[in-house]
């Protein structure tokens, strides 16, 4: 009996003397893989206490690029979850050990952590579409499609589209990576004027070009026969040869072609029996070729005759009288709706055809596919013709002099004007040296590429002189100034 009591006491003593154990167990996968720079990735760490006593955790330590911390008590048999994040700042590899500091009596207190910082996935915008509406009748509308492309690797959030006056269209939403969105943009002019500016897509700080130049002009419903409408406005830019420029004009009409020999003869025949006299009868290779061998005085009087023939008030006077005869440098250009020579700035504005910052009506280079001029690729870098000596246009240099071409033989510019470069130089009203010289522009079949540029105001001649490579075209104001 005494021995049995002694055994029970021994067992109780053994139970009371068992040691405290705080066994630390860490669980979690911390190979983050590739993470974009500037973004954050997270994983969960499980800190388990597999012992029989409370586990005191004093904190966590992590290598550069990783973050996460926790301190506290984990009771026996319990687990604590801790968020571990990785936020790379550079494109590089990150690695090391996660270390848990505690009073654990056993167990592993480290886990490997690794990740790679890679180039950030961002949205990137690109705009596509022809936003040059050309001429649209006042009160009518024309639509074009703008394509918004996201060529980046993240969503592109579009907050809206802003447009200059005269245009409308909007869209907002999200375009996924490598996605695109079509947006209809409508132009509805309210006046005979140029409407232009930048279309802007609201995207915040996203790489790429979020603006596009948009352009159109309002046209009148009825045009004078043989003329085109040149919309008023401002054409500004940086010309490759002259630098920055700005041209502002009112709307006007301009002959679609240089005045042909046929048109000259028609008006001339009327004029000489209605009180007009000219220094020259005019010449031309054919009826559809430009008239030439007429001087500045001839062209001014001819414009007056054309006005009177059509029932319009003549523009030009001398001492208050309609200019019909003689040579008078003091010719006055009066406000009115009759035919007249263009001013130099009007001629350049019209020649540019709505393009800005270009050397020619079509772009910055020239060859015989563009115009009838004297080609020589060795003279100018922008003359891309194959010739290294002065060479007339092979199509039009056969037969007798002069080597003019039928009007309209080449593509028109943006306003529908033909032969604004080459064929024959064209007279302007502008005078130099108190009228001793008069401006002539546009180049000719006998002029090098440099003379065919839209800005070429260095050529002038005596108003009484006539030439086989100088002609003209007329304009009309839309409203009296």
Explain what this protein looks like in three dimensions:
By secondary structure, this protein is mainly beta. It folds into 3 domains: 19-118, Immunoglobulins (Immunoglobulin-like, Sandwich); 125-222, Sandwich (Immunoglobulin-like); 224-481, paralog of FGE (formylglycine-generating enzyme). It is built from 4 helices and 33 strands. Strands 5-7-3-1-9 form a 5-stranded mixed beta sheet, with no helix packed on it. Strand 22 (233-239) and strand 23 (243-249) form a beta hairpin. 38% of the residues are buried. The model is unreliable at 1-15 (pLDDT under 50).
Describe the structure concisely.
By secondary structure, this protein is mainly β.
Strand content: 25-35%
Mean pLDDT: 93
CATH class assignment of the largest domain = Alpha Beta
Query: How many beta-strand segments?
Result: 33
**Which residue ranges are poorly predicted, with pLDDT under 50 across at least 5 consecutive positions?**
1-15
> Helix fraction?
10-25%
How many domains? The number is 3
């Amino acid at each position: 009996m005494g021995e049995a009591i002694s055994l029970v006491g021994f067992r109780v003593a053994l139970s009371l003397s068992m040691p405290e154990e705080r066994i630390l167990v860490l669980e979690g996968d911390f190979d983050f893989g590739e993470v974009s720079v500037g973004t954050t990735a997270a994983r969960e760490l499980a800190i388990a206490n597999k012992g029989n006593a409370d586990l005191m955790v004093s904190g966590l330590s992590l290598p550069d690029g990783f973050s996460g911390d926790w301190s506290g008590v984990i009771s026996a048999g319990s687990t604590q979850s801790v968020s571990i994040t990785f936020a790379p700042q550079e494109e590089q590899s990150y690695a090391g050990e996660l270390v848990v500091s505690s009073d654990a009596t056993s167990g592993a207190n480290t886990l490997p952590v690794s990740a790679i910082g890679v180039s950030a996935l961002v949205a990137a915008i690109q705009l596509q579409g022809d936003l040059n509406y050309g001429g649209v009748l006042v009160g009518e509308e024309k639509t074009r499609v703008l394509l918004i492309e996201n060529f980046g690797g993240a969503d592109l959030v579009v907050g809206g589209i802003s447009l200059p006056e005269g245009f409308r269209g909007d869209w907002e939403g999200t375009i996924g990576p490598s996605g695109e969105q079509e947006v209809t943009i409508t132009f509805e002019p309210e006046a005979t004027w140029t409407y232009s500016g930048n279309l802007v897509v609201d995207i915040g700080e996203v790489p790429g070009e979020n603006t596009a130049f948009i352009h159109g002009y309002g046209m009148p419903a009825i045009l004078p026969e043989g003329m085109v409408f040149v919309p008023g406005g401002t054409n500004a830019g940086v010309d490759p040869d002259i630098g920055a420029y700005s041209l502002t004009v009112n709307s006007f009409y301009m002959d679609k072609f240089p005045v042909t020999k046929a048109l000259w003869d028609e008006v001339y025949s009327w004029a000489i029996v209605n009180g007009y006299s000219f220094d020259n009868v005019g010449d031309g290779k054919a009826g559809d070729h430009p008239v030439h061998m007429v001087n500045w005085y001839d062209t001014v009087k001819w414009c007056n005759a054309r006005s009177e023939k059509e029932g319009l008030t003549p523009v030009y006077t001398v001492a208050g009288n309609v200019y019909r005869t003689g040579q008078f440098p003091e010719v006055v250009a009066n406000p009115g709706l009759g035919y007249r020579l263009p001013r130099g700035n009007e001629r350049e504005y019209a020649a540019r055809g709505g393009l800005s910052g270009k050397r020619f009506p079509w772009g910055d280079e020239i060859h015989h596919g563009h115009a009838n001029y004297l080609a020589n690729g060795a003279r100018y870098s922008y003359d891309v013709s194959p010739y290294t000596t002065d060479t007339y246009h092979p199509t039009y240099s056969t037969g007798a002099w002069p080597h003019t071409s039928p009007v309209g033989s080449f593509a028109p510019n943006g306003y529908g004007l033909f032969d604004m470069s080459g064929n024959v130089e064209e007279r302007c009203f502008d005078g130099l040296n108190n009228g001793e010289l008069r401006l002539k522009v546009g180049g000719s079949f006998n002029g090098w590429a440099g003379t065919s540029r839209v800005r070429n105001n260095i050529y002038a001649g005596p108003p009484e002189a006539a030439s086989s490579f100088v002609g003209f075209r007329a304009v009309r104001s839309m409203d009296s100034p």
